[in-house]
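Q: What would this chain look like folded?
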Amino acid sequence: MATRMTTIIRARLRQAIRSSRLRLWIRLVVGVGVFIAVIAHVGTGPLLRGLLGLDGRTIGAALLLAAVATAAAAWRWRLIATRLGVKLRWSTAIGMYYRSQFLNTVIPGGVVGDVHRAIAHGQGAESIRQTSRAVAIERTAGQVVQLAVALTVLAWFGAEFEGYLLATIAIGLGMIVVALLVVAGASVRAREALLHEARELRAGLGSVRVSAQVAVASLIVIACHVATFTIATAAVGESVSAGRMLALAFVVLLGASIPLNIGGWGPREGIAGWAFALAGFGAAAGVAASILFGALVIISVIPGAIVMVASSARKGKANYAALGPAPLPVLVLADRSQEKTP
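A: My prediction, written as structure tokens:
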């Protein structure tokens, strides 16, 4: 009896762990909880201060920087997709990437847009497996470059953060390595799957030229995000030197990448408050800058909503045209002259 109950409990736990709905609820609860806790700690003043920092200049700058970042990210995606044998025009990639960013921002989880991008591209290219790999490699490459640049910047300009962040990053990377080793040692099939994915990764980034181009594209994306946060910090009235600003921006961007947020909100505000307080600017300043940065991010992905509406309209017209013209009603009149009279 006890053995049976243990088996049932283990099965239920495995099912819960694999449940996407559970993961979504965890993100919602943690993200909202952290955000509420931060606002409860610093008060509503930084929230209002951040939102009042919105004006025409900051919005215009954010839209321009987002356009450059989106074009660079789309270029990165196109490079990898082409290496994997999937055709993708740059103009199409830009539109799809805008739509992906919008969905990632407005739908909890932060990955719905990427999944939609992979499937939409796969349906057109008739190879969803390869398009999914292209999206996964593209996002991973961007995160790896951001982490490498962040560590370099913090080593030069963020000495006060090193003791905390380096240990956290080292623990996180160690956990990933251990998890991969455990999976690889679990079965031959798992090892073969990991080796296959490694070969696909090498296929997507194997060329020195393509790897260099992907790195350059990632640097452009990162620079645009750092510039947007710098603008947000200045807009809430904080004056920070260039080196310190770089360090603070990268700390906040690392906080925004924690996969327990709602459209980026939650841990980012907590990390920003902690980082600004540690740097001597006060937690309220960091929270205000992060609030404004989050608002600018939402505004800057609005073109993705326009792309999504336009795409749906084009698809609707295409479906309507495929049906052909509707048949006109035909009124059949009996030829009474041929009717037999009784």
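The radius of gyration is 26 Å.
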